[in-house]
Amino acid sequence: MTIAEVVPSLLAGLDVPGADNTLDLPSARRVVLLLVDGLGHELLREHADHAPFLSGLPGREISAGFPSTTATSLASIGTGLLSGEHGIVGYSFAVGDEVLNALTWARAGDHHHDLRKVLVPEVVQPHPTVFERAAAAGVAVSAVAPLTHRASGLTRAVLRGSWFRGVAGFGDLALASVSAASQDRSFCYAYHADLDMIGHFHGPGSEEWLLQLEFVDALAERIATRLPPDSLLVVTADHGMVTASDKIDFDTEPLLWQGVRVIAGDPRVRYLHTESDEVLDVWREFLGDRADVLSREDAVDAGWFGPVSPLALDRIGDVVVAMKDSAVVVRSQAETVLTVMKGFHGSRTRRELAIPVLFHSTT
């Protein structure tokens, strides 16, 4: 059971052709899907006392898929596919001669270099979205997200087919979600980012993070209590998070540079495009039991990315480095902000992959 199945399972209850309720979720004429960035299943379970509303909801655990990072998971939400098919294979990845930051749709390391004209979002991710399918079936589809996401590359790539409602904070996110549910046979996708951001800078489980979790819990409860009859609120996430205590700096380890033409991904998952077959062995020996270091072929054969299309295959890189425990591969010179963070995600640990699907029905 994966994040790619969430929206199709909900659309099945709205009679969208081809949608299958594989997660056995309740059905309703009005659906609000609230995605809380960074709300891992393990974190919510460990800190249930800070989120009494969410912790009291029925639901189940599913997998975010690999890599367990926001751009990839949002693409899976929007397409109903895993990364090996939709091709948004990480926080950053190579597309031709460019390394694309999928969140900003800019050149990795240079957020001022907009790539929307060079790497057209609808071409980078060409599959029809589940929102387009729902809209074609007559469902009123809305996306409620921060104002800055309107017309962004990622929004165009994975949320097209929805009517975008830009919001600035908790209050208008809640009210916009409820307003979207006022229409019969409606589906609203709502996104909240701040829990993840606080986890990155202060660490998951920190005092700051716990207070934000309390705010998120209140947000979900406010939405639930305002929804009209025959509505369903579903709360899920895009990944969990780990605290890093073991940082390996690529930019200051010359041994790791040898034979590496391009390095992409993020500190928990690195894609290495190589000029030498020795890179795989060098990285394996250097990292030891701190990472799973596989060739692209072995990672694909192991099913890390789900079914893999030619579109995604070239973006994965020749070597895939999935960090374990609390280890990360940072770049102190090229990725200064990422380097100083405390919380990370993207790899294959349970704390990163396990996410909740919780639901509340109104009568």
Automatic annotation (TrEMBL):
Pfam families: Phosphodiest (PF01663). SUPFAM superfamilies: Alkaline phosphatase-like. InterPro entries: Alkaline_phosphatase_core_sf, Phosphodiest/P_Trfase. This is Phosphodiesterase. PANTHER family: BIS(5'-ADENOSYL)-TRIPHOSPHATASE (PTHR10151:SF120), ECTONUCLEOTIDE PYROPHOSPHATASE/PHOSPHODIESTERASE (PTHR10151).
